[in-house]
Amino acid sequence: MSNMKPETKCGLVLEGGAMRGLFTAGVLDVFLENGIAFDGFVGVSAGAAFGCNLKSGQAGRVLRYNRKYCRDWRYCSWRSLILTGDMFGADFCYRKLPEELDPFDNAAFDANPTEFWLVCTDVVGGTPVYHRCDTAGGDTMEWMRASASMPLVSSVVRIGGSRYLDGAITDSIPLEFMERTGYGRNVVILTQPEGYVKKPSSLQWLMRTVYRKYPALVEAAAHRHAVYNAQTEYVRKRENEGAAFVIRPERPLPVRRVTHDPGLLQETYDIGRRTAEQKLEQIGSFIHAGRD
Fold it and tell me: Lesser CB count within 10 Å: N end or C end of the chain?
């Protein structure tokens, strides 16, 4: 009978935050460049839309297309919201961009055995839905779109008879999901500094008006701040117990959720890179501790 300790799977958890996700992109590019790999990962909203490039192995792609198209009205604008129903244009972001302008490497994504989940919110049930993306074909881009479809500035996304919006409404930091799925040790990338406390939304009245057909969604959105704050407390607890390694900016990032300044996007990305580079040895030790 073997006395060897069973290997503990190591996962990665990617918070969203729209353009704050450039911080995450900087961290992930450092991982790719230094061979830092995980058994599986989960992304929420921008964490999914940007994080998928980790599975396709495309370092630099997120920064490249965001810098190039951040001022293109088709990518993100009030004009796009008025004309298409989505501030981040669905056809441009999830078809034209990955298929033509800056191609997503579908073959590399499919060949990479790393498990990848994303989180959406079922608008009828007001509950999180965790979808595993094994291949880049089929409706995968629609799932990514759904995960990143922020309420009030996005159309409800219909997939297979169900309706979805932003996963961050119901599970912004899915560390507990990863642990339930069998990942005993997890690296968690947050896009807010330590001590950040989310406040109740001032637009709850508008949520009630726009989504009156979806009362469970409205209820979930009303409690989002409390759920988020409880999750950051849980992350801190697991960090103190040695089961999580947290990467977060030291101070609030220079970008807002929507930013059209390529210089600010570059600055945010660079902060992510520096943060990861400073912790590279610690990250490697944390991952390998569960595999020894």
Answer: N
